[in-house]
Write a structure and sequence with these properties.
This protein has 206 residues and is an alpha/beta fold. The protein contains 7 helices and 6 strands. The protein has a 6-stranded mixed β-sheet with strand order 2-1-3-6-4-5. The radius of gyration is 27 Å and the shape is elongated.
């Protein structure tokens, strides 16, 4: 599969071959959904916590005698039904993460990349570099490329000037190749890959 390469100035810079095994699949929504759910659950903090009756402070003395008062029998006031008492079945710190086989995670990434190709929302960039870290300059270059919402993936290292110029532009994410993930690909309209990112991608899926 052939794809055109463009420069940051929206000029033609040749073409590249995209492997069909990575970019030519028929996207499956079920696999993408499983992967996005896996990512979102894994990043939940899970630090929510409520005190049960063993953790709240207060007297443990019996409220009144067991019989003869005409009232319901009770122990102490730390029971959940009383004000100031412990929470019944409240949340406790835990991990929300679920398991997903590595093969499914790899397949989901391929389907996300293929989805961008099928919807014609993939841009191959020669280099993601700037001489100066100027947000205005980069905004103008993105306008020429027709980019308003995009995930930009570079090689092992991101150009410092490019990253600094892009961080003030809304709906633009810039990541090194190690940060490539399904959720970020799908949440932005365009996917921009540099030649260095493509080389790293081919190496990863060898």
């Amino acid at each position: 599969m052939k794809a055109n390469v463009t420069t940051i100035d929206a000029a033609k810079a040749g073409s590249v071959d995209l492997p069909d095994a990575v970019f030519g699949l028929e996207p499956r929504a079920d696999i993408l959904h499983r992967m996005v759910r896996y990512q979102l659950l894994k990043r939940q903090a899970g630090t929510h916590h409520a005190k049960d009756r063993s953790l709240v402070s207060g007297t443990r003395a019996k409220m009144f005698r067991q019989k003869g008062t005409g009232r319901a029998r009770h122990g102490n006031k730390l029971a959940p039904q009383f004000r100031g008492g412990g929470k019944a079945l409240g949340p406790v710190p835990r991990s929300h993460a679920i398991d997903l086989p590595k093969k499914v995670r790899t397949l989901a990434l391929k389907h996300a990349l293929s989805a961008k190709v099928k919807s014609e929302e993939l841009i191959i960039l020669d280099k993601a570099e700037l001489a100066e870290a100027k947000t205005k300059t980069l905004r103008e270059k993105f306008a020429a490329l027709g980019v308003k919402s995009a995930l930009i993936i570079d090689g092992p290292q991101v150009d410092k000037n490019f990253a600094m110029a892009a961080r003030n532009i809304p709906h633009i994410d810039v990541l090194a190749f190690a940060g490539l993930n399904v959720y970020d690909i799908l949440r932005r309209q365009k996917l921009v890959l540099t030649k260095a990112a493509l080389e790293a991608l081919e190496e990863r899926f060898k």
